[in-house]
Amino acid sequence: MKTLPNISNFKQKALHWANQFEVCCFLDSNDYNDAYSAYDFIIAADVQGELKGTAGNAFDQLKSFYTVQKQWIFGFFSYDLKNETEDLSSGNSDGLNFPDLYFFVPKYLIAFKNGKAEVILGDPSVLAKIESSSILDKKRSKAVQVSQRLSKDQYVHKVETLRNHILRGDIYEVNFCQEFFAENAEIDPIQTFELLNKVSPTPFAGYFKVYGQYILSATPERFLCKRGPILTSQPIKGTAKRSLDPAEDEAIKLRLRNDIKEQAENVMIVDLVRHDLTKSAVKGSVTVDELFGIYSFPQVHQMISTISCELNPEVHFIDAIKNAFPMGSMTGAPKVKAMKLIETYEVTKRGIYSGSFGCISPDGDFDFNVVIRSILYNAKSKYLSFQVGGAITYQSDPILEYEECLLKASAILKVLGG
Predict the structure, then answer these.
(1) Is 186 assigned a catalytic role?
(2) Hey, how many other C-beta atoms are within 10 angstroms of the C-beta on 184?
(3) Residue of 50, 221, 401, 404 with catalytic role
(4) What is the Rg, in whole angstroms, of the alpha carbon atoms belonging to the chain?
């Protein structure tokens, strides 16, 4: 354990140090107080062992990998693992080509809590090495020309069509997303992530590099975590733009808290998450710890609910992840029908977007986020992508939904210079 005098400086140096390796992962809570997080930030770098999985038997492969390694592992689940959990397929275009599942055992693992850094894996002298390193000034990333995959009219038409599905009784709610993308994009991933994390600091932010493929994330949402026998999920449904005027900002917050439409969206997903957790829970242990909590972030207020349960000892914790995947907040209700409609009406494969990344500890505790408000980048093909979306219910106004998408995209567009 080592007390650090300048935490933000060390954090920056540590990320630059980790980035010299082909694979690294940085998870940052940005000083948000959170009852479930084990560390304030954690950095994993270089590879001792790794697993790349494809939808089919990826979760079983992960179970075997974890059993053999019995060590800290970091990795991600792509949304398209839905094709393993249900009889579904993905046929939309994919400019990023991330693996469906990737996990690695790091050679170095540095964790930080309450002002103290600890080297969990690797040579303890690495802390001094990082502290004495200097950050080279890199050339500024060029402004990226971002295009939208759907025009406003196309988006509005698709939302109207989805509302008709709801009217017919096919679904109650669906999370419909659209892609913003850039070809021949040249960015400095670290610099872009640092800027994003500065513009939009969130409790589940992260930087994940896997051989030239990058996740640069400012996500505010937790998918699922396990602490001892307790599983906790915190879906977000309900968004309102913040105001610079404190009185108006407080009024917006109050309006969101009491918004019947937002509450209806939120409670549908809470019911879906409760159902997903029941598959892994000790009978009768699923509880809603908080309903319609309002949390504030730099650009938006969000409505967040918290659902927990006790994990049935007969259920492997990786099966508990599989049983809840993909997260209800990014699909809709009923879940399988919503995912079929997502595949029909969206035009881009989601891949890592609306998937999850995080880590699993040697004792089987884990914490995974939801990949939203994130830039995805393939340095080899120079393809950059981010997606935004929202919950469509029958009450949805397509124009307002479109404007909410632009609000959610605003921080990333600002970072990319668009």
Answers:
(1) no
(2) 10
(3) 221
(4) 20
Determine which one of 13, 82, 226, 237 is catalytic: 237
pLDDT (tens digit per residue) in 341-398: 999 999 999 999 999 999 999 999 999 999 999 999 999 999 999 999 999 999 999 9
Burial 386-401 (b: 16+ CB within 10 A, else e): bbbbbbbbeebebeeb
Two tokens at 157?
A: 């038409």
Whole-number Cα distances in Å, 68 to 50, 51, 227, 336, 363: 11, 12, 22, 33, 13
Confidence at residue 109, expressed as pLDDT on a 0 to 100 scale? 98
Residue found under tokens 């890199």: 138
Type of residue numbered 185:
A
Q: Structure pTM?
A: 0.96
Query: pLDDT, tens digit, for every residue of 289-335?
Result: 999 999 999 888 999 999 999 999 999 999 999 999 999 999 999 99
Q: Would you say 276 and 324 are in contact if contact means Cβ atoms under 8 Å apart? A: yes
The 3-state DSSP class for residue 242 equals coil
Tell me, what amino acid is at 227? R
pLDDT at 8: 86
For residues 25 and 8, what is the distance between their CA atoms, to the nearest angstrom?
Answer: 17
